[in-house]
Design brief:
Order of helices and strands of chain B: EEEEEEEEEEE
Oligomer: heterodimer
Structural class of chain B: mainly beta
Largest interface: A-B, 17 and 23 residues
Strand content of chain A: 35-45%
Number of helices of chain A: 0
Helix content of chain A: under 10%
Distance between the termini of chain B: 40 Å
Distance between the termini of chain A: 35 Å
Shape of chain A: globular
Order of helices and strands of chain A: EEEEEEEEEEE
Number of helices of chain B: 0
């Protein structure tokens, strides 16, 4: 069983609020990812990291930021939430030698009113 | 552009066999992956193909033809718990996963 954890699992906030979604993994994986997924739609890569102090933008990154100060921790921050940010956010990690085998957290379902 | 196509939804009967197809056009190819995602949950890894042919894993098998840009996931002896979405993903030349939208599989008794 994968050891990757996300908090909060569910969050309802008002427009304009700043939020941070937390993600931690205990597998020692170097590579970590944030995806956004709407119901019935494909996963969209928001940000990823190859390791400590490495962060890269994905397809939908322009309205969020990430940091990777520790191997196990990869938080995602929305500076000013909007209703269009309402979605499921999935954090994942992978072993460097297994780039396509991702271990996912249980997700953070965000609703912005 | 990069593209992964798979049917939106399929229905099958408990105990039967179902084949979920996936076609892809990507910049480079470093493997094809199938994931299972139950409603409201995160995806979980099912299988991996990098060479042509069939990989079998219990009731699930996955096939790959690189020349045709084609894969399928075969599920045998279907159980109700197999009701889920099945995601096809390709690892491209940059070792990034390109995801399909998933096939929702509905199992009927």
């Amino acid at each position: 069983e994968a050891d990757i954890y996300q908090t909060p699992r569910y969050l309802v906030i008002g427009t304009g609020k700043k939020i941070t979604l937390e993600c931690s993994q205990t597998m020692g994986h170097d590579k970590m990812y944030w995806y956004q997924q709407d119901p019935g739609m494909e996963l969209h890569l928001i940000h990823y990291s190859y390791g400590v102090n490495s962060t890269e933008k994905g397809d939908l990154s322009s309205e969020s930021t990430v940091s990777r100060i520790r191997t196990e921790h990869f938080p995602l921050t929305l500076e000013s939430a909007r209703p269009s940010h309402t979605s499921q956010y999935l954090c994942a990690s992978s072993d460097p030698g297994e780039a396509g085998e991702l271990f996912f957290g249980e997700g953070s379902r965000l609703t912005v009113l | 552009g990069q593209n992964i196509d798979q049917p939106t939804e399929m229905t099958a009967t408990e105990g039967a066999i179902v084949q979920i197809n996936c076609t892809y056009q990507t910049s480079g190819f470093n493997g094809l992956f199938w994931y299972q995602q139950h409603a409201g949950e995160a995806p979980t890894f099912l299988s991996y193909n990098v060479l042509d042919g069939l990989e079998e894993k219990g009731r699930f098998s996955s096939f790959l033809s690189r020349s045709k840009g084609y894969s399928y996931l075969l599920l045998k002896e279907l159980q109700m718990k197999d009701s889920a979405s099945y995601l096809c993903a390709v690892l491209d030349s940059n070792y990034q996963l390109i995801w399909g939208a998933g096939t929702k599989l509905i199992i009927k008794p």
